Amino acid sequence: MNDAHADIMIISAHPDDAEFGAAGTVAKWTGDGKAVIYVVCTSGDKGTSDRGLTSERLIEIREREQRAAADLLGVKDVVFLRYRDQELEETPDFRKEIVRQIRRFRPGTIVTSDPYRRYIWHRDHRIVGQVTLDAVFPYARDYLAYPDLIEEGLDPHKVSEILFYAADDINFRSDITDTFETKVAALRCHESQIREFGIDNLESWLRKRCRQMAEGEPFDLAEAFYRVKAPA
What we know:
Elements: E1 8-12, H1 17-31, E2 36-42, H2 55-73, E3 77-83, H3 92-105, E4 109-113, H4 123-139, H5 147-151, E5 161-165, E6 172-175, H6 180-188, H7 191-197, H8 202-213, E7 222-229
Parallel strand pairs: 1-2, 1-4, 2-3, 4-5
Antiparallel strand pairs: 5-7, 6-7
Helix pairs in contact: 1-6, 2-6, 3-4, 6-8
């Protein structure tokens, strides 16, 4: 087996996005022995109201927080692409980089932000979701899409499914009743951002959200996704 192989790849715009969207499900996967890889497109270098922090210092803090959260969840590795926060664009070069990571790790499942969420939504999240969707199909799949990647030893790869977190339309709910506390602990690793959000009681706030996402299901707490099967 390829040493870089992953069963699941989480592609996020910023450190902490994966924990908010899918940490309970990630904990379930790693607990079942699945290999999970994070690809973080920016290091969140603008995510602070502290005027005493430089972007360079914030990158160090947020990457350290992300690694701590990933370690707690049992994530195999974190790849930081280090694009600039709030400056992601839907470009051929960015798409090619996502294709490179997909072909490198060859996941069956990809999890990312829903690019079609309505109303207020961080632009970086929309861009990451759309570029990931395009990278999965057809670019990662097609031999002639990026022939130079073949020269890097990165053959085409077909992803089986995509899960979009923070979606308006939900068709899949993951039972995280048993991993909820792990999700909370992983989010607490992102100390700089929890302060920014001004959440007084993280666990209570999160429990309410996850209980709402589990409405109508036979379990108490959930993370909700829009799940699609990738074309063959």
